[in-house]
Design brief:
- The chain has four helices and three strands; from the N terminus they run αβααββα.
- A three-stranded antiparallel β-sheet has the order 1-3-2.
- The protein is of the alpha+beta class.
Length: about 70
């Protein structure tokens, strides 16, 4: 079984506090959080964006893993 990265739990708790009651955030919210351009994040293959319908979304768990 894979081991969690060191800061994963801290990042997950921080994101849960920032976005209470949400499991998924929009790409615009992620851009504001990370101070990155939308195109930059979407070009990054490791960034956990999912295309749902015609909009991008990011799970809180995936984002915590990405930040770790």
């Amino acid at each position: 079984m894979a081991r969690e990265k060191q800061d994963y739990r801290d990042n997950l708790e921080m994101l849960k506090e920032m976005y209470p009651g949400k499991a998924v955030i929009s790409i615009d919210e992620a851009c504001a959080l990370l101070h990155r351009n939308r195109k930059t994040l979407l070009k990054d293959r490791a960034f956990p964006a999912m295309l749902i319908g015609n909009k991008y979304a990011i799970s809180i768990v995936g984002l915590a893993r990405y930040l770790s």
